[in-house]
Design brief:
7 helices, five-stranded mixed β-sheet, alpha/beta, binds magnesium ion, elongated, binds adenosine monophosphate
Length: 411
């Protein structure tokens, strides 16, 4: 049995970033960019109308008066014209259309004097723009960025805006850290899939969908392997399958009961144990090991306790940082953030190991309030479902009263 801090350090030591790969933009959201994106176009690519209105020659505009012009062409976004706008003329133009030659400002449609509001090509328009500035409402070619310019730097996480920018810059592919492939296996002869109505003695597999969701939320790729009954051949076959992934997250069968076969099966499959059992509540039986692979970094192997709440606490504490490290994210994002909060109800520490109590968190004028969730035992998902974080109580058996300041982990 080892201390939580030592266990976490061992996980950090065993994990390393997966080598970056070229991958399609369509599935790159949330990934860490490993090589810069260079644009192949100017932005805007040409002088672009930024308002619906009339493209005019500034020299024709009568300041503080009415400008009357012949409309020679109608230009919607996507329309182009070879026509040049000459003195006394203008183009009716929509936002996003290229500015025709000769024109150098847009007078917005709001400035049209009533009777000529509908003026199109062949008609005449009367305009009054009290705030006219030369060059107004035109985005000039290349003023945002130039062809050949770096628009996204290596090391940034690709959010929705960055994906849009990469698309504009012509990057159909990016070089980024790949999504870690995470196999998820639930063990237990009592388990049935969620769509089954459990018979007497059976339990729905909630860990499978829960851990799949947790993996997805981290941006990794879950590979659900379903349920393996507590028979050595069944578990062994599924474990062998899971060991091909970057991470194997197994739940159940890691404690000290007669049917807790998993640690021995891991050994038989070639998994090297790094630790088994951590001073932690819940989550004492947690197992961590590595499985060496020929061409890739070792598979990281987590055996989480079967109790759903223990499983999730252990995933958040141990598996999450491993997945973050594989994804290449900066150290400060490996673990869930910690803060201080004020208890709204008493909470009791364990004498011999730290306790992680699911809680709700609320921001107040003086900081954060933490309310421990009613928890009837470590299999209680009802409390966990609404938990915004965990109260982290140090070993020592202290009873913390309402109002006491404690450490929290924010989810
Ligand atoms: P174990 O760690 O295998 O001893 O399981 C501890 C408790 O968690 C038992 O009550 C199991 O029925 C329950 N359990 C194990 N795996 C799951 C699962 N995938 N979904 C829901 N409950 C589970
Ligand atoms: Mg079991």
């Amino acid at each position: 049995m080892i201390d939580l801090t030592d266990a976490l350090a061992l996980v950090e030591q065993a994990a390393s970033a997966l080598p970056p790969r070229r991958q399609g933009l369509a599935d790159a959201c949330g990934l860490l960019l490993a090589a810069p994106v260079i644009s192949d176009v100017d932005s805007p690519p040409w002088d672009r109308a930024m308002m619906d209105g009339f493209a005019v020659r500034g020299a024709d505009v009568v300041e503080s008066g009415v400008t009357e012009l012949d409309v020679v062409v109608d230009l919607a976004a996507g329309d182009v014209t070879a026509l040049e706008i000459r003195a006394g003329c203008c183009a009716r133009i929509m936002t996003g259309a290229p500015i025709p030659r000769g024109a150098d400002a847009i007078i917005p449609v709001e400035c049209v004097i009533d009777d000529s509001r509908g003026a199109h090509a062949g008609g005449r328009v009367r305009l009054r723009d009290e705030r006219f500035r030369p060059g107004q409402h035109i985005a000039r070619r290349g003023t945002a960025f130039r062809a050949g310019q770096e628009v996204l730097a290596a090391g940034m996480t690709l959010g929705a805006g960055a994906i849009g920018l990469a698309a504009e810059a012509g990057a159909t592919h990016v070089v980024a850290a790949p999504r870690a492939r995470v196999a998820i296996l639930s063990t237990g002869s009592e388990l049935v899939p969620p769509e089954a109505v459990p018979a007497f003695g059976q339990t729905r597999n909630s860990n499978g969908p829960m851990l799949t969701a947790a993996v997805k939320l981290l941006g990794a790729e879950p590979i659900p392997l379903g349920i393996a009954a507590d028979r050595p051949e069944a578990i062994r076959a599924s474990v062998a399958q899971g060991l091909a992934a970057d991470v194997l997250v197994l739940s159940g069968g890691v404690s000290a009961g007669d049917l807790d076969l998993v640690p021995e099966i891991f050994r038989l499959c070639g998994v090297e144990k790094i630790f088994h059992k951590v001073r932690l509540k819940p989550g004492k039986p947690v197992f961590f090991g590595v499985f060496p692979r020929e061409q890739s970094p070792p598979t990281l192997v987590f055996g989480l306790p079967g109790n759903p709440a223990s499983s999730l606490v252990c995933f958040d504490l141990f598996t999450r940082p491993a997945i973050q490290i594989l994804a290449g994210v900066a150290r400060e994002h490996w673990h869930l953030p910690r803060s201080r909060a004020r208890l709204t109800a008493p909470a009791k520490a364990a004498p011999d190991r730290p306790v992680y109590l699911p809680c709700t968190l609320a921001r107040t004028s003086h900081g954060i309030d933490a309310t421990p969730l009613p928890w009837t035992g470590s299999s209680d998902l009802l409390g966990l479902a609404g938990a915004g974080g965990m109260i982290a109580l140090p070993a020592g058996g202290t009873r913390f009263e309402a109002g006491a300041e404690v450490e929290i982990v924010i989810k």
